[in-house]
């Protein structure tokens, strides 16, 4: 198994239930399509929702940190942030960002599946 290399931005929101999770994911997927997905090096945006209905994670995958930095430097950040603010006002429930600091990451290690061997823990 090869490590899924690249650069990631992980956006984390707390929400007040499954309905808000669905609304936020739908809205943020549209924002990714309209504001981000056409930039060079953009690979994907994955949306994860907690099973208890309290969190939404938007994991944006870039080919490299340089591609992400190019996006930050050349995109309409003010317009995008305004669009995010507008979306948050249209959601029926409550959604609040939970990021602290710059939410960017690189993959350093991955453990994939393998065949069980003698001596492995039960």
From TrEMBL:
GO terms for molecular function: monooxygenase activity. Residues 20-74 form the ABM domain. It comes from the Bacteria. Gene3D superfamilies: 3.30.70.100. Pfam families: ABM (PF03992). Keywords: Monooxygenase, Oxidoreductase. InterPro entries: ABM_dom (IPR007138), Dimeric_a/b-barrel (IPR011008). The keyword Manganese does not apply. This is Antibiotic biosynthesis monooxygenase.
């Amino acid at each position: 198994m090869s490590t899924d290399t690249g650069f990631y931005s992980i956006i984390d929101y707390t929400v007040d239930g499954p309905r808000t999770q669905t609304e936020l994911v739908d809205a943020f997927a549209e924002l990714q399509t309209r504001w981000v997905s056409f930039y060079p090096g953009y690979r994907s945006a994955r949306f994860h929702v907690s099973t208890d209905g309290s969190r939404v994670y938007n994991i944006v995958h870039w080919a490299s940190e340089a591609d992400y930095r190019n996006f930050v430097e050349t995109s309409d950040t003010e317009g995008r942030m305004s669009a995010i603010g507008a979306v948050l006002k249209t959601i029926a429930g409550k959604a609040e960002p939970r990021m602290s600091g710059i939410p960017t990451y690189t993959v350093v290690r991955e453990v994939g599946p393998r065949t069980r061997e003698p001596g492995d823990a039960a």
